[in-house]
Design a protein that fits this description.
By secondary structure, this protein is an alpha+beta fold. The protein has 13 helices and four strands. Helix 8 crosses helix 11 and helix 11 (236-258) packs antiparallel against helix 12. The protein starts with a strand and ends with a helix.
Length: 332
Amino acid sequence: MTLRIVEVTAKAEYGKKLQEIAADNPSVISLRMSSKQEGVQTLSMLVAAYERQKLLDKIQSHLSADKDWRIVVLPVEAVIPQPEQPEEAIESLAKAEAVQTREELYADVESGAVINVNFLVLVVLSTVVAAIGLTEDNVAVVIGAMVIAPLLGPNLASILGIALGDRELILQAAKASAAGLLLSLVVAAAIGLVIPLDLHNGELIARTRVGLDGIVLALASGAAAALSLTTGLSSALVGVMVAVALLPPVATLGLMLAAGQATAATGAALLLATNIVGINLAGQVVFLVQGVKPRTWLEKRSAHQSVKISLSVWIACLAALAAIIFYWRQIH
């Protein structure tokens, strides 16, 4: 059972109502009210995943008229004895509903879409490792590059930003994704000018050929990434899957451009575009199915429009890329 400690600090006048909200929510396993200072109280609750989002939404709605309050959500490693799960919670797990609240999702992905020194250094290092692995035809080295590649963060942040109608997060994620891809391309091209390429290299050739199986891989990677995030599962393996879809193709594109191989570079670019579209489309669908959405009616309306537009654009792009891939396969 995924448990959290939810601490709500607010003026004492809200204490009674907050306790009533907690008592009416089936996700609350236990609660305790304490006074931090005069006129201020803290309600500490042990909360299960089932209907935790509804609990946070009701608390925020009740406190929205006031500015002097705070909600802190803390992870729980273990509870002894283990609390029993209500029947509704078991049904929720069976339906594979989102375990993470939108606030937890936001906290998880926002930092991954920030352009800072660490992000840029990881992009450079992962590209160097990937480029060396590709030129040496060493799959183990390529996998190592996939592990350290930071390209998962901006993609998940963009998907979540669209689901929540958060234009600021969407723009931030778009900038980080563009910066990461462009920097990786430049670094790979610089390496390609120094290291001679073996055009019969299996790892390189694999990233210049795109087919319908590439679309399936991208869709699977995007769906797995979004699913792991919303269910609170480890994203390490999913991070590798997404890196598989993004880092090697962009590194191959840079290497082929530096070598003057226009046809191979076009194939790598087409694979990269296909994977980006597939990852974002599948992730968007998963968030939509699992009910990841804003809290207020006005925000929901904005998010509904952004999701509708996004899905239409991604589907159109995927259809166009599928047609291009079919034509590309016919002439090559």
